[in-house]
Amino acid sequence: MSFTEIIGQEQVLSLFKSALQNERLAHAYIFAGQEGIGKMMFARELAKKIFCQSGKIDDACDVCSICKRIMVDNFADLFFLFPEKNHRVIKLEQLKHLQEILYVKPIEAKHKIVIIEDADKMNEEASNCLLKTLEEPPLYAIILLIVTSLESVSETIKSRCQIVRFSPLPVDVIRNILTERFQLDKQQATQFAFISGGSLARAAMLMDANALEKKHWLAKKLFEINCADNLTFSQEVLDEWNIQDFDILEEKRTHVKELFFLFLMYYRDMLICKAGGTDFPLYYDDWKDALIKKGKSLTENTLFKILDIIKTSLKYLDYNANINLLIENMITEILYIISDPKALKDERPLFRIDSL
Ligand SMILES: [Zn+2]
User: Fold this and answer.
1) 71 Cα to the center of ligand 1, angstroms
2) Residues with CB under 5 A from ligand 1 (ion)
3) Same structural domain for residues 9 and 144?
4) Fewer CB within 10 A of the end CB, N or C, for the chain?
């Protein structure tokens, strides 16, 4: 892998090619965009390009001693920081340790690069500490913050960084990756590329065997569900996904994310069926008749609101400690809206069906 082989992020690539050629790299960048579109990979390849000893203009060489050490995560002037296992936020102590490291001059290179993954997941103290580092960075420092939600980054931090937005990956890029790396046939790859929302991570999650098995259970339940069953249904969902069995919070969240995506795809597919959208492949394609039938009793506005509820729950998943309650609330809200559409305000949430 090298810097120029990164696909689907041409704008970002050309921005950095030009900055490198003109030797005008900033001290701090925020790489923003949804999960699974290559932000981290780009950060790593960029660091490799900056450190590479070969003198190649556009790219790293992948064969010099530094390139090789970066490829096995063993190069002293490149640091990674991310939330510790079983914690969803980066802690103050980690930021303080980073400051200490950063103020020691680079050992081998001209620069010292720090890549902070999940930099939008910090408590206030840690965020203030990061801000201090960004206010007076050593001249040799380059700090790359990787975030999925720019809204969660404080304005003062944003003002100290150059913001680089990563786009969802185009359908053909994901389709090619799925056929080449995941050995899917062309038809399957096209289907998952469309429903991935431009994220390779989402495609991988939805085509996982567990998700494919569970989607049938969920589709059957959602077809039969009665609006008064919210608590029973929540408990059944918790049992079916074995949520209680995961001791490690991070594993639990991964499973709940899969569950939420299955809900999201169900109502997305129902909306597509209702709108007669034949251009979008369905995730629940084998439940199409049931979706059409069930969709008849719901308005498009109700479906948009349900999608909004699920998207909000997905957002809270990273911050909410009480996962059981989050699931229960989401199910209760969905069933409530279905039972009483009049409770719905008129405004329609602002998103496009192909961005789901
Ligand atoms: Zn090299």
Assistant:
1) 10
2) 52, 54, 60-61, 64, 67
3) yes
4) N
